[in-house]
Design goal:
This protein has six helices and six strands; from the N terminus they run αββααβαββααβ. It is of the alpha/beta class. It folds into two domains: 7-69, K homology (KH) domain (GMP Synthetase, Chain A, domain 3); 74-135, GMP Synthetase, Chain A, domain 3. The strands form two sheets. The chain has a three-stranded mixed β-sheet with strand order 1-2-3, with helices on both faces. Strands 4-5-6 form a three-stranded mixed β-sheet. 25% of the residues are buried.
Length: 136
């Protein structure tokens, strides 16, 4: 995986790693949210007891913070990216990936003006070279 981080994203990672005491392997900084990808098995430690770390980092960065657990398996990583929304189906094809989300969660999973799905697509492409990701 070839990930290029900006200086700002590297500084966000440094601050967050110092606070959560676990390694962060990626950071996506968009206008509304910082998304950190943590090593497999480290999500609980990153979030902290009673979401203490998450809450504190949101105060420090003055924006929403999301942690995603990395996984080598493409399907599981996609599930992790969509959390807390439940996927009812994942179909991996040559053209890309199609996911189905519970109808009640579809709008939230996509986000206002496609904000959430665009972040998910960027991270999926960076870690698993997924060119297309559709929500059905």
């Amino acid at each position: 995986m070839d990930i290029t981080l900006t200086n700002e994203e590297m500084s966000f990672i440094a601050v967050a790693e110092n606070y959560i005491k676990t390694r962060i392997i990626d950071c996506l900084n968009d206008p509304h949210r910082l998304t950190f990808v943590v090593e497999k098995g480290k999500l609980g430690k990153a979030i902290g007891k009673n979401a203490k770390n998450l809450t504190q980092l949101q105060k420090i960065f003055k924006k929403d913070v999301k942690f995603v657990e990395f996984d080598d398996h493409k399907e599981q990583f996609i599930k992790n990216l969509f959390k807390p929304y439940e996927l009812t189906n994942i179909e991996i094809t040559n053209q890309g990936i199609q996911v189905e989300v519970k109808p009640s969660d579809k709008g939230k999973a996509i986000g206002k003006n496609g904000h959430n799905i665009n972040s998910i697509r960027q991270i999926a492409k960076r870690h698993h070279e997924i060119e297309q990701l559709k929500v059905l």
